[in-house]
Amino acid sequence: MTRFQTLPGFPRRTVLLVFLPLAVGCASVFHGTRQRVEIFTDPPGATATAGDQKVTTPGALRLLRKEKNIAIRIEKPGFTPKTVALERRTSGLVWLNVVGIASGAIGGAYAGEATSGRSDWGALGNMGTGAVAGAALVPGIGFWTDFQNGAAYRLEPARIVVRLDPAVSSVALESPE
């Protein structure tokens, strides 16, 4: 009876431990759930506020990528306040989860063979099932993770430059009598 070998010299657990982390979500790993948005104003020294975060310009806010409607309010005494709306878009990094198809297939095949209870070529049926399941589950889990925690998105613009206009006082608007 021929025993089906997974990879020469590699125990199944080692192979599974190598491939399983690929299911965590590529965007989550590479750029996280928060994004740094830089804010510059002319003149400097304005206060930029988004939610509960405030920064004096020039400065940066670390905003959650998951939020749909983010508006940054920029204020400075003596100047007209301005609001900048950020747009949430899908990040290209989320597509790295497709790499999980191959790793999921390999990891699933090993798991299928390990659970077959057979030591001959009859284990191939379970390996095929495991490979298909792994190829679907690993990238699926990665995509789900990235979209649920917000890492699948990017906020635009990531750099804001605003010229503040001097406020027009009501005294200046009155006409002389």
Task: Provide an overview of this structure.
With 177 residues, this protein is α+β, with helices and mostly antiparallel strands. It has one domain (12-163). 33% of the residues lie in helices and 27% in strands. It has helices at 12-19, 26-30, 100-115, 124-149, 170-173, and strands at residues 34-42, 47-50, 53-56, 59-64, 70-75, 82-90, 153-156, 159-163. The strands form two sheets. A five-stranded antiparallel sheet has the order 3-2-5-6-7, with no helix packed on it. A three-stranded mixed sheet has the order 4-1-8, with no helix packed on it. The N and C termini lie far apart (110 Å).
Topology:
Layout: H1 12-19, H2 26-30, E1 34-42, E2 47-50, E3 53-56, E4 59-64, E5 70-75, E6 82-90, H3 100-115, H4 124-149, E7 153-156, E8 159-163, H5 170-173
Parallel strand pairs: 1-8
Antiparallel strand pairs: 1-4, 2-3, 2-5, 5-6, 6-7
Helix pairs in contact: 1-3, 3-4
Q: How do the helices and strands follow one another from N- to C-terminus?
A: HHEEEEEEHHEEH
Strand content: 25-35%
Total DSSP helices: 5
End-to-end Cα distance: 110 Å
Helix content: 25-40%
Q: Summarize model confidence as the mean pLDDT.
A: 79
Low-pLDDT segments = 1-6
Number of strands: 8
Secondary-structure-based class equals alpha+beta
Spatial order of strands in the largest sheet: 3-2-5-6-7
- Count of separate structural domains: 1
Radius of gyration, whole Å: 27 Å
**Which sheet architecture does the biggest sheet show?**
5 strands, antiparallel
The shape is rod-shaped
